[in-house]
């Protein structure tokens, strides 16, 4: 059995090649972010990241953030969201809950207050429907701060929202006027 440390290493590798740099191992993603599973495993193994189909199945099934998904026929795989390369995930616009949350670090708060939430190098701004997830996200970047997003008002003002296969809410930009501190 593959160790937890190896599984984490493979998962991080998958995030890199399926979200940001497929050319690192010579794979291509189609316009919707899918790549062939057999080719992915083959190219990964050629590049020193050794795993088999059972290990890949285990990572997709047990990843707590559901970062990866197989297509219906299980012969293609993609990252659920978080891409820095241009792909079309095929999500349809949906009405969000009244409030969504964004976890960040203390050092980013002033920029967010000034400019709102920007997608920067990603395709979307990532939001969560619960405070606990936002805190976990913020903690990855330093001392966590949670910002409330007035999502329903944004939606009424014709902003589009999407929800990824793993439950992350996505939008293009959140102007500062739609943000509130978590204390408000």
UniProtKB/TrEMBL annotation:
<dbReference type="Pfam" id="PF01885">
    <property type="entry name" value="PTS_2-RNA"/>
</dbReference>
<comment type="function">
    <text>Removes the 2'-phosphate from RNA via an intermediate in which the phosphate is ADP-ribosylated by NAD followed by a presumed transesterification to release the RNA and generate ADP-ribose 1''-2''-cyclic phosphate (APPR&gt;P). May function as an ADP-ribosylase.</text>
</comment>
<dbReference type="InterPro" id="IPR042080">
    <property type="entry name" value="RNA_2'-PTrans_N"/>
</dbReference>
<keyword id="KW-0520">NAD</keyword>
<dbReference type="GO" id="GO:0016740">
    <property type="term" value="F:transferase activity"/>
</dbReference>
<keyword id="KW-0808">Transferase</keyword>
<dbReference type="InterPro" id="IPR042081">
    <property type="entry name" value="RNA_2'-PTrans_C"/>
</dbReference>
<dbReference type="InterPro" id="IPR022928">
    <property type="entry name" value="RNA_2'-PTrans_KptA"/>
</dbReference>
<protein>
    <recommendedName>
        <fullName>Probable RNA 2'-phosphotransferase</fullName>
        <ecNumber>2.7.1.-</ecNumber>
    </recommendedName>
</protein>
<dbReference type="InterPro" id="IPR002745">
    <property type="entry name" value="Ptrans_KptA/Tpt1"/>
</dbReference>
<comment type="similarity">
    <text>Belongs to the KptA/TPT1 family.</text>
</comment>
